Amino acid sequence: MCMDCWENYGSPRLDTDAVRVVVGLIEQVYDYNAAGGGAHIVLDDWNIEDDDIRWCIDNLSECSEAGPERVVTMECLSALLGLTLPERASALAMVDGFVLAAVK
Asked: pTM (2 decimals)?
């Protein structure tokens, strides 16, 4: 949890379908590993720039055993790459409880 990180990204509160998909994927990653596993530096440390996400993807591809945790982590990281930085920060803020998702 990094409220300062979220604030550094402008405290975005974007609640889109794409953000909600990523929130669900992040929660699945945490179901496997409470510390974020192979996506730890992105999900827990808020290193949400493209290069950081790609580093995790490359590292998982080279070093991680195939299995359901790796599959969901890769899916999560790939989905994060499809979001803008404010959307990424919004998704992490929702997961961390800084922002409540809007009721649709």
From this structure: 0.91
